[in-house]
Amino acid sequence: MSALEETLQLKAGETILIQGGAGGVAGFAIQLARHIGARVITTASAANHDYVRGLGADEIIDYNARDFTQVVKSCDAVFDTVGGEVAQKSFAVLKPGGRAAFIASGAQAPKPMRSDVASLRPPVGRARRHMERIAQLYEAGAIHPPEVKLYRLAQAADAHRLSEGRHFRGKLVFQIR
Predict the structure, then answer these.
(1) Domains detected in the chain
(2) pTM
(3) Res 155: pLDDT
(4) How many angstroms separate the Cα of 65 from the Cα of each of 54, 89, 145?
(5) CA end-to-end distance (rounded Å), the chain
(6) Number of other residues whose CB lies within 10 A of the CB of residue 82
(7) DSSP string, 13-52
(8) Is 152 helix (H, G, I), strand (E, B) or coil?
(9) How far apart are CA 14 and CA 32, in angstroms?
(10) Which of the chain's termini has less CB crowding within 10 Å, N or C?
(11) To 5 degrees, how large is the angle CA 62–CA 119–CA 86?
């Protein structure tokens, strides 16, 4: 919420690349960007294409088959939930004056190799107004919850391995009782 609306200040008619579209945060971002009126491009494995299309993605790049920098050009914004090499490569798809927000690259946003783009780190704090806005969007039918994979607490190691692999859909949730 804060990354797209406040940090990137995404507007209707703009194009955004959302890295890691099948993840819970990116999946929400796809829905929110679509609600704002942006054109949404995302990266996802082939197995997740139908899922992210259902969230509202206009264009999907299979990161296992294609280098997104060879396909995507002139984006107004990038929202990166992947980090690492993907984060640094994300600057290549921005048009001059473009902006990128990073949540998987540590406490500081990565430094771009270009001087004509902005590299931003959204605040990590939580605010009641964000939760109220999410509730309003949900009640209006503009967004829906991500796919959820439930784990018992005894399966914490399995859930952690899946999370570390960074190739899962939606959110991982522990069922305590």
Answers:
(1) 2-120 (3.40.50.720), 128-175 (no CATH)
(2) 0.88
(3) 87
(4) 21, 16, 28
(5) 30
(6) 21
(7) T-EEEEESTTBHHHHHHHHHHHHHT-EEEEE--GGGHHHH
(8) strand
(9) 13
(10) C
(11) 25
Reading the block at residue 176, the tokens are 């305590």
- Give residue for tokens 């984060």: 87
Contact 71, 53 (CB under 8 A): no
How does 124-145 read in b/e, with b if 16+ C-beta sit within 10 Å?
Answer: eeeeeeeeeebeebeeeeebee
Distance CA 21, CA 169 (A): 9
Q: What is the pLDDT of residues 104-133, one digit of tens each?
A: 888 889 999 999 999 999 987 778 888 899
Which value, to the nearest 10 degrees, does the dihedral of the CA atoms of residues 147, 80, 104, 102 take?
A: -130
